[in-house]
Amino acid sequence: MNENIQFFQAFLKNPTSVGSIAPSSPELARAMVKGIEPGPENVVLELGVGTGAITKQLRNAGANSENYLGIEIDPSLVRSLRGSFHELNIVTGDATSLAEIHRRSGLGRVGYIVCCLPFVSLPNEVGGKILGEVEKLMTEGCMFRMYQYAHGYYSPSAIKLRDFMRKRYGRSRRSPLIVKNIPPAYTLTWFGR
Ligand SMILES: C[S@@+](CC[C@H](N)C(=O)[O-])C[C@H]1O[C@@H](n2cnc3c(N)ncnc32)[C@H](O)[C@@H]1O
In the CATH hierarchy, which fold is given to the domain comprising 3-144? Predict the structure, then answer.
């Protein structure tokens, strides 16, 4: 099935969990993956794999079964992802159990967390729980990258999330606005310390 149609169907089924009507554009996906060099002790965790828009770029950057773990809550998306990315570990799971899912995978130290979860539309307690899990894995030098849509950038939940991260990891590195995406978005990057 066409990726855009599949994504839109997932959105209609669960709008708050999917949080967007279209998958990330190639421009946003490339910005999300910039500088990432996966390795057995620099494992990439991708949270909210969707239809795999960012996964494709991660695979181009060297993601494989020894250095990549994708977590997606929607089992029907995971079934289809496994067809397209059979060489990658993609599991049906909830990012609120992130540390335990990583532990069970048997993979090494997490070097990169590529987060595509729609914090602005997720319930506050779910977002808070996920950030608590992220904290468990953010060892020194671990990179956490997410995107935030320009139109929601100053919403209370987006500001709260940035405050949470700033208190722990300092100011983010923000990309220029990526206009070739529906809707336009920034990437934000922090490093564990
Ligand atoms: C905005 S979409 C991003 C999809 C894709 N990465 C992209 O950039 O096009 C968010 C994805 O996160 C998934 N998701 C939402 N809550 C989740 C959770 N608690 N754990 C894992 N995945 C979740 C949704 O099902 C959806 O596929």
Answer: Rossmann fold (3.40.50)
